[in-house]
Amino acid sequence: MSKGLFFSILFGLLCAEVFAEDISSFKDEISALQSAMGIVLGRLDDRDTQINSLRDDVERLTLFLADQDATISEQNSRIQSLEEIIRSKSDENHTTSDATSREEHAQYSGPSSGSAPARKAAYDNAYNRMRREYVGSPVAFLATLTNHITHAGALQPIVFDRVVSNVGGAYNVHLGSFVAPVSGIYVFSTTLLSYPGHTSHFQFVKNNDFVSRLFLHTSSGQYETVSQTVVLQLNKGDDVTIRNQDPDEAIHGSNYSTFAGFLIWETENIPAIVG
Ligand SMILES: *[C@@H]1O[C@H](CO)[C@@H](O)[C@H](O)[C@H]1NC(C)=O
Ligand SMILES: *[C@@H]1O[C@H](CO)[C@@H](O)[C@H](O)[C@H]1NC(C)=O
Predict the structure, then answer these.
(1) Which Pfam families does the UniProt record give (predicted)?
(2) Per residue in 97-132, pLDDT tens?
(3) Closest residue to atom 3 of ligand 2, CA basis
(4) Is 168 found in the same domain as 70?
């Protein structure tokens, strides 16, 4: 081997040695980079998982809120219908309640604008309109018997001849009968004082049909009184009287015996009665 060739080979070996060292350090760097990349990728994965779970949370919250919205709007409509019920109940109350509570209503629950007298006037107008519309006109009477009846015939009506009140003019003082001006529910009441020494029966009568009986029994010199209240549903034109039952009976007058009645509820021309 020539000296030149020997050195060439030696140089080549040295270079190879250096190159090999370079390569191995390069490999180290690459694997370090790879592991760093691995860590970064792992963290990105974690981020993705976190983001996904946050997204799930947001979705759940959105659903929850939508649910709450539905509940709130359902509750709002329930509140509205309850308010309507309360309003109509309060109207109902005031169609049948007395002037004092009407005044209270005007003072405390009238429209919030305007002075108290103006609100009361507005309320009274509305009340009167409603009353005409739903209850119609008032009907009420009271009549008393001034003279004794000493020889009443069988089934003869008692004519209470002294009219104390006759709002609506439905009591006929000549016949002693009440004639319903409108269909409705009516209350009637009578009080009868006995004629001494008589046992007598009387009747509430509707259109000549017997409704109920009253009984008085007294020895001579004694007095008894009997009283009864009836509630009748009448059609317009029906009549109600008190009549004596047996022949030749008697009843005490002197304003002790009375016949009274009034309409409590009209059952026709009422547009809004439900349930
Ligand atoms: C109706 O009147 C009654 C008795 O006064 C009262 O208890 C009730 O609260 C009233 N209702 C309304 C809705 O005003
Ligand atoms: C009954 O009342 C009328 C009217 O007030 C009266 O004129 C009459 O004297 C009274 N009769 C009796 C006995 O009280």
Answers:
(1) C1q (PF00386)
(2) 555 545 555 554 444 556 777 777 777 777 676 665
(3) 146
(4) no
Question: Any idea which residue has 């081997």 for tokens?
Answer: 1
List, chain by chain if needed, residues with CB within 6 Å of any ligand 2 atom.
Answer: 146, 162, 254-255
The answer to the question of residue 130 being in a domain is no
Q: How far is the CA of 92 from the centre of ligand 1 (A)?
A: 9
* Pair 89, 194 in one domain: no
How many whole angstroms separate alpha carbon 243 and alpha carbon 223?
A: 20
Q: What is the DSSP string of 23-89?
A: HHHHHHHHHHHHHHHHHHHHHHHHHHHHHHHHHHHHHHHHHHHHHHHHHHHHHHHHHHHHHHHHHHH
Q: What is the CATH number of the domain that holds 245?
A: 2.60.120.40
Determine, yes or no, domain membership for 78: yes
**Could you read off the pLDDT of 7-58 as tens digits, one per residue?**
888 888 887 777 888 888 889 999 999 999 999 999 999 999 999 999 999 9
**For atom 7 of ligand 2, which residue has the closest CA?**
146
Alpha carbon of 127 to ligand 2 centroid (Å): 38
Give residue 109 CA to ligand 1 midpoint distance, Å. Answer: 13
> Average pLDDT, stretch 152-163?
95
Domain end position, chosen among 56, 76, 103 = 103
**Which ligand is located closest to the Cα atom of residue 164?**
2
Strand-pair partners of 162: 144
**Structure confidence at residue 124 (pLDDT):** 76
CA dihedral 170, 171, 174, 177 (to 10 degrees): 110
Residue 64: domain span: 1-103
Based on the fold, state whether residues 155 and 98 are members of the same structural domain.
no
CA of 181 to the centre of ligand 2 (A): 29
Domain membership flag for residue 111: no
What is the band of 85 on the pLDDT scale with cuts at 50, 70, 90?
confident
Number of domains in the chain: 2
Averaged pLDDT for residues 224-246? 96
